[in-house]
Structure formats: C-alpha cells, structure tokens
Specification:
- The complex is a heterodimer of chains A (337) and B (269).
- Chain A is mainly alpha-helical.
- Helix content of chain A is 75%, strand content 1%.
- Chain A has 14 helices and two strands; from the N terminus they run αααααββααααααααα.
- A two-stranded antiparallel ribbon of chain A has the order 1-2.
- In chain A, helix 4 packs antiparallel against helix 5, helix 5 packs antiparallel against helix 6 and helix 12 packs across helix 13.
- The N and C termini of chain B lie far apart (44 Å).
- The longest helix of chain B has 16 residues.
- In chain B, the strands form three sheets. In chain B, strands 6-7-8-3-9-10 form a six-stranded mixed sheet, sandwiched between helices. Chain B has a four-stranded antiparallel sheet with strand order 2-1-4-5, with helices on one face. In chain B, strands 11-12 form a two-stranded antiparallel sheet.
- Chain B is globular.
- With 269 residues, chain B is α/β, with parallel strands linked by helices.
- The chains are: A mainly alpha (337), B alpha/beta (269).
Chain lengths: 337, 269
C-alpha cells in the first residue's frame, strides 16, 4: 500500500522531470525515445533537440537525483539505527560537510569535472574521517552519547563548512561561482559519467544495509542488549558508518550538500510503516527520490533560466516539515528518550 | 557439563575492588537467586557472567570454553540476558520486540520458520502479553514493557538465563507469574541466575541463594541455610527476622517490628 503509493509518486515525478523545462517533452515522446535507444523502431516523431535534451541533460540529472536521494536516505537509515536516534543523519553527524571538504579540495587542486572519480573518492575519505571523529568524541566506553555525537557533528560541520568556504575563495574567478553553487547542492553538473561514478560508490552501501536489516533492528535494544542477542555490534557499527560515509561522499561529490533528505525521508516512512529497517530502507529511498525530484523540478523551473540551489530548497521545505514531524511524533510516541 | 563456571573472579574499577575472589557455577536445572545489599557487586558479577565486562582477574567458562573466545552469535544461543533497564529507541510493536529475541536462531532471515514463530507465540502467551502483540512498545506501561522484555528473553530459548532484577517493576501477580516461569525454565533443564531484592521471592522460588556482601560471595546454599536472621541482619546492617510462613511451608523474611534506633536510619540514607 505505502510502497504502491510511493512508487506511483516516483513515476509521476519522472514524468514531470523528463517533460518540463525550456523544451517540453510529452511522456509518450519520452517512452518512444527510450524505446528507440534500445533499438526498437517506434517512430517517435521527436525533434532532434528533444532527444538531446532528454538524453544528455534531463535523464542523467534525474538518475543522479535518484542515486543521491537513495544514498542520503539509506545513509540516514543506517546512521539512525547505529546511533539509535531518529535525528542522526549525514548532515547532523558531520558526514556531509566532511565529504564536502574532500570534494572541494580535490576540485580546487584541479580535478576538473565533478564527474571524475577523484572528488568522489576524496569526499568519501573525508566523510569517513569526519564521522569517525564525531563517533570517537561521543563514545564513552561501550556507549555512544547521542547528545555529544550531535554536538560534535555541529562543531565538525562548522569547521568543515569554513574549510569549504576557504577553498571556494581561493578558487579562480570563473570556477568560483559554480563552486559555491555546488556547495549549496545542485544536480546541474549531472553527466552520465557522474552517474556511473556515483552508482559504483552508492550500490555497495545499499546492498550492505539491506543485508544487515535485521541486525539493525536488534540494535534498537541498545549495544549490550544487541550483543546479548547475537549481534557483533562493533563490526556492524564500523560497517554501517563506513557505508554511510561512502554513500554520502559520492552524493556530495556529485551534487553538493543536500540537507534533510536523510532525516526526513526515513522519518516520514517510519511514521507510516514502522521502524523495521528491512522495509524502512526501500521505503525511505523511494520517499527520498520523490522529495529530491520534486525539489529539483522547482529548482530548475521556478526562476528559469537560472536555478535555485537544491540544498536551499530541501532545507527550506524540509526544515519546517521536520519541526512539525518532531512535534507530532513526540506526542504520538511519548518522546524518544 | 556445567554451562557456566566463574573461577577466581576479581574485578577492580577506579582502584577499588568491586569483586574479590568469586567462584560460582551455574548448575543445570537450578534457579540461583543472587541477593545482597546495594553495592555488593551483584550487577557487576552478572555483567561478567554475561560477557559484558572483562574481569581484572579470573575467567568465565561457558560450556567449557573461555567466554571471550565465543562469538556473539554463538553466545546468544547459549545464554540470554535480561538487563535492569528497558530501552527501545524506535516504536517497534510488541511482537517485533519479542521476535528480536530470535535473532541468533533465525540469523539474517525473516521470522518464518515454524520454531521461531512458535517460540515467539508461546513466550508472549506465557508472559501474558499476547493481547498486546500489535501495540507499539513505547506506549506500554513500564510493567508491561518489562513483561515484553521477559518474553523476548524466553523466546531466545537458551539453556542459560542471566536476569537482573526480573521482577523490579511488576505487581504482585506478575511477580509470581514471572518467578514461576523462570523456575519452570530451570525445571526443564535451564541454568538460571537472577538478581533479586525481594528476599521472600528468593525464599519461595530459588533452589539456592547466593548472598553477596562487599564483593564476596558471603554464603551460597539452599534458602533455609542462607536466610538466617543473624546472617541477614549482619549483611544488610539492619534488624531482620525470619519465621515460618503462615501457610506452613517456606520462610517469611521481614524487618524487625521493633525498630531499635532512629540514628541508624539517618545514617543509612
């Protein structure tokens, strides 16, 4: 039921995102253009500009959006489970801005396009460092103090955002504008190359989280209780944090810092279908896709021909919604403590 | 083979000896109650038996194997642990929580095997939470949550049960229901150790009582041997009387009716 609804919404978003923009492409034309791609002679009647817009601009952008949304939502699900807090998310625990430092440094050092492998790899490494730093600060014996974790995330974000700002400033004039635009989140740099690099880094993380779904559920009991129940907690945490860092790194390198998707998508889905990570993971990834594609549609059509940064939109829409969810969930579930 | 053996356990924390030379075997078919005043080291001993805390000296053998050599999954099929506090950060349903107890048996798979489903159902009905199965755990009362966690431990279906104050937040009826369940597990061949604060529950249900005081196992034996007025009054530093239960069987432990002094109370609190 929920999954049918979410899937229909994703399809609707695909139709809107392929069709709308400076060049209009009706859904039927999109389908026949895709059919022609795979070798079917359907006679799309499409004009040349439609084909090139669809194939080299809109589709990579949409696919990258799906990947980034899936990565952020999945990373959110994983981090929320291992830190046992529904507020944990790439942006909250310092992973996102940690990733941005690596990507920005790689870009400033001359790795040209955002699609190449170097920024994504660098972003994953710094995301990993930032997350483990926050984790080390928050760890006390076998326990992770969640409040300390989030405060550590705040500090790491501040430092990392400052570092990114510095790198943006030293970038050369022409590069600078696109650079600062990237740091606010955008799918504008999407190419098929970006898509493939991101896919390679995102897929293993999603597979791992799907495979570990039941262990993540047991973790809700607490670290010691999970170990009593048979989960190797330390290994699981390292695996999940590494996967989240890798996924976030890939997403940030390709599309900048897009906040709130990783907390909003899992949270909304959890309220509807419950906290079982085995269904939460695909549900949150679908919800994240809807959210991000809707935001991107607004981002590129609202003030066309220029664009509103995607991260600005997700925060603008997600922030207040998140506050409302916070309020509602606390009332319904009696809080999280 | 004795399922759990603790040998020469010494544990120090912050330069202070918490446990000082504990030797204890959990015997199959026996419910052992661990009693003693606050700070005697009961919970630390349970933590060491469970493998949470590594003792400064001494060793724990689980089915003949040093506990630190056993992987969590293997250990979870041998012993279950009921913690003192119940925590659950997400709104799982009661059934889902009890199913978590089956993790070590079902591995990464779904709860679909018949033995898993049966273990979950029978644990829920034994603890009387079957009617709450679809409710969200955080919405339950503290006592109901405690029962669900006990159901989870029972569903784990292990030969060894380590329970830290299993009756702490239960009313009288549920207290006895849980103690009966635990004793039944022991009768079926389980080795059970439970920290209890209520000496009367220990008197009525335990096969033997381990009295802890000052980090040592002061006395270990059948209830009649351990529940002696002089011994209890000394260990608890409070006048305690023991009499035959009015029903004619067992013992009744109570504080002395005539309170000797007021200064004592002030000093204790």
């Amino acid at each position: 039921m929920t999954f049918t609804g979410l899937s229909l919404m994703v399809v609707a978003m695909l139709v809107l995102n392929t069709g709308m923009g400076a060049v209009t492409i009706p859904p039927a034309t999109v389908v026949s253009l895709l059919a022609e791609r795979v070798g079917l002679e359907v006679g799309s009647g499409a004009i040349g500009v439609q084909e090139s817009v669809l194939w080299s601009i809109r589709l990579p952008r949409i696919v990258l959006g799906l990947l980034a949304a899936g990565a952020l939502a999945a990373a959110g699900v994983g981090l929320q489970a291992v830190f046992r807090n529904p507020l944990a998310e790439s942006q909250v625990v310092g992973t996102s801005w940690g990733a941005a430092v690596g990507a920005a440094a790689a870009l400033a050092l001359g790795a040209r396009a955002t699609g190449s492998f170097a920024p994504a790899a660098a972003a994953s490494v710094t995301a990993l460092l930032a997350t483990f730093l926050a984790y080390r600060v928050a760890r006390r014996g076998p326990r992770v103090e969640v409040v300390t974790l989030i405060l550590a995330g705040v500090a790491i974000n501040a430092i990392a955002a400052a570092a990114v700002g510095l790198l943006v400033n030293v970038a050369e004039g022409g590069q600078m504008r696109s650079f600062s635009f990237w740091s606010l989140g955008t799918l504008g740099g999407a190419t098929w190359q970006t898509v493939s690099v991101t896919l390679v880094l995102v897929l293993p993380g999603v597979v791992l989280l799907a495979w570990r779904g039941r262990q993540l559920n047991v973790l809700a009991l607490g670290d010691e209780e999970a170990r009593h129940s048979g989960v190797d907690v330390r290994r699981l945490r390292v695996e999940v944090v590494a996967a989240a860092a890798l996924m976030t790194g890939a997403s940030v390198a390709a599309a900048g810092v897009i906040g709130f998707v990783g907390v909003l998508a899992p949270h909304t889905v959890r309220m509807i279908i419950g906290p079982d990570n085995r269904v939460l993971l695909p549900g949150a990834m679908l919800a994240g896709a809807v959210l991000l594609l809707a935001a991107d549609l607004v981002s590129r059509t609202a003030v066309a021909p220029s664009e509103i940064p995607l991260g600005v939109l997700t925060s603008l829409a997600g922030g207040p919604l998140f506050l409302w969810l916070l309020h509602r969930t606390r009332r319904a579930q009696g809080g999280w403590v | 083979m004795t399922p759990v053996v603790a040998m020469g356990i010494v544990h120090e924390a912050g330069g202070r000896a918490i446990l000082d030379g504990i030797n204890l075997q959990l015997e199959t078919g026996m419910l052992t109650a661990l009693v003693g005043p606050n700070g005697a080291g009961k919970s630390t001993l349970l933590g060491i038996l469970a493998g949470d805390i590594r003792p400064t000296r001494g060793s724990i053998l689980v089915q003949g194997c040093p506990i630190e050599q056993l992987k969590p999954a293997r250990l979870a099929r041998i012993r279950s642990v009921l913690p003192q506090k119940n925590r659950l950060e997400f709104a799982f349903s009661v059934r889902q929580v009890v199913e978590l107890g089956r993790f070590a048996h079902a591995g990464g798979r779904r709860i679909s095997r018949r033995s898993d489903v049966e273990a979950v159902e029978s644990a829920m009905s034994a603890t009387g939470v079957a009617s709450l199965a679809d409710m969200s755990f955080p919405t339950l009362s503290v006592g109901e949550q405690a029962l669900v966690m006990i159901a989870r431990i029972l569903a784990q279906d292990t030969p060894v049960l380590i329970l830290d104050e299993p009756t702490a937040s239960l009313d009288i009826r549920h207290e006895h229901r849980v103690m009966n369940l635990i004793r039944h597990r022991a009768r079926q061949g389980g080795a059970v150790i439970a920290v209890l604060h209520d000496l009367n529950l220990a008197a009525r249900y335990a096969d033997r009582i381990g009295m802890m005081a000052g980090g040592r196992l002061h006395t270990l034996g059948p209830p009649g041997d351990v529940l002696q007025p002089t011994l209890l009054s000394e260990v608890y530093d409070y006048p305690i009387e023991v009499m035959d239960h009015p029903s004619g069987s067992g013992l009744l432990v109570t504080t002395s009716a005539t309170r000797r002094d007021g200064a004592h109370r002030g000093g204790a609190t």
